[in-house]
Design brief:
The complex is a heterodimer of chains A (about 120) and B (about 160). Helix content of chain A is about 50%, strand content about 20%. Chain A contains five helices and five strands, in the order βαβαβαβαβα. In chain B, strands 1, 2, 3, 4, 5, 6, 7 and 8 form an eight-stranded antiparallel beta sheet that branches. Chain B has a single domain (about 10-155), classed as 3-Layer(aba) Sandwich (Chemotaxis protein chec), CATH 3.40.1550. The chains are: A alpha/beta (about 120), B alpha+beta (about 160). The structure holds magnesium ion. Magnesium ion (MG) binds near residues 7, 8, 9, 53 and 55 of chain A.
């Protein structure tokens, strides 16, 4: 499973990497903002899953999700962010995310959300 | 109508108390004891490692999470899973992300439309920070098994701009 990790914090990307290392055959590509994320899709895509932070410099996660969804309706996207207000979550879902994880989270929560998302997306295709 | 020009909404302080405990407990496994919030007039943060996050929207200002260096080192080590020295760029990254989570988590309890900025981190024993002068800074003293830190809230509620 090829996974794109987009967060401006390297520490956070490392935590995500630890969580996905338990997934068989997972391979991670990292990006530090939305622009880098889109460039990574061009260069190393397609991906099976994208974990995208919201608050990032240059291009935020919501803008990146909207850009991705202009052409790609199927890749699983999970937003992992400190943005926890209902209207924000609704905004992200409208933009096309498949699931949402609020920071702070436990590794188990993130892993469960990934499993749940891949099951949902797999069943739909 | 609350008086928006003076004072600080106690709800904002409560939000930071619970988000700080929550983030450090869940991401770092550190339980913190929260002391009595007090007015702060000095422009120097309480300690030597500071993560700063700005707010905009229906609130303006910033929050500073200021750590005693020893506490910061232990917290970063627990967060990253390895010892990281202060001069390593990953140290500031980790403090910035923890500050981002504390600010973002507090924001959801404001009951207001607010956005947070990208965190910045300042390291050094004598650094000073510019603050909003028309709103008091409230320092929330925190202690934990790994050392002391403080959450310094300098934000005010502002009227919604209607276009
Ligand atoms: Mg971020």
């Amino acid at each position: 499973m090829k996974i794109l990790l987009v967060d401006d914090s390297r520490t956070m990307r490392n935590i995500w990497k630890k969580v996905i290392s338990s997934i068989d055959g997972s391979e991670a590509v990292e990006a530090g903002d939305g622009n880098e994320g889109l460039a990574a899709i061009e260069k190393s895509g397609p991906f099976d899953l994208m974990l995208i932070d919201w608050n990032m410099p240059n291009m935020d996660g919501l803008s990146m999700v909207k850009k991705v969804r202009e052409t790609d309706k199927s890749t699983a996207i999970i937003m992992v962010t400190t943005e926890a207000e209902k209207p924000r979550i609704i905004e992200a879902i409208k933009a096309g995310v498949n699931n949402y994880v609020v920071k702070p989270f436990t590794p188990d929560t993130l892993k469960d959300k990934i499993d749940e998302t891949m099951k949902k997306v797999g069943a739909a295709s | 109508m609350p008086d928006e020009s003076k004072g600080i909404n106690p709800k904002l302080i409560t939000a930071f108390v619970s988000s700080t405990r929550n983030v450090l407990s869940m991401m770092v496994g550190v339980e913190s004891e929260i002391g009595k919030p007090a007015l702060k007039t000095e422009s120097k943060p309480c300690y030597d490692v500071s993560g700063i996050v700005g707010f905009s929207g229906e609130v303006a200002g910033s929050v500073v999470i200021s750590f005693h260096e020893e506490a910061a080192l232990s917290i970063v080590e627990a967060f990253c899973g390895e010892r990281i020295e202060v001069d390593n760029p990953d140290f500031a990254d980790a403090i910035g992300e923890l500050s981002n989570m504390i600010a973002g988590n507090a924001k959801k309890d404001f009951g207001l439309e607010a956005s947070i900025g990208i965190p910045s981190v300042i390291i050094g024993p004598e650094h000073t920070l510019a603050r909003l002068s028309d709103v008091p800074c409230i320092a929330i003293p925190c202690s934990s098994e790994v050392g002391n830190f403080s959450v310094e809230v300098n934000i005010k509620q502002v009227s919604k701009v209607t276009v």
